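User: Fold this; tokens only.

Assistant: Input:
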Amino acid sequence: MGKYDKSDAELKHTKANYQVNKLAQLNDINWYLFIIYYVVSICAILVIYFQYDLNKYVKILITILFLIYPFVIRSIEMAVLKGTEFNESLFYGVPTKEKIE
């Protein structure tokens, strides 16, 4: 075992604090983008409802697609990411770390 180095411990502590702060900042940005998406999609839905003469069922379908899009695309994104990580670990022979979601 190595000797305890106070400057190394402080450096790691500073790095951990920076990463926690950066993660919180990115989560805030993600939340604002989520809100902006729904505001824009509600405006688009209103424009579609009042300016286009479409069938009632088509309007309902477009509304549902606008509202569930972020959740569907996130699921697809995670599936592609997991597949890529699996292929990378298979190719390099390094096991992936299990993530708790």
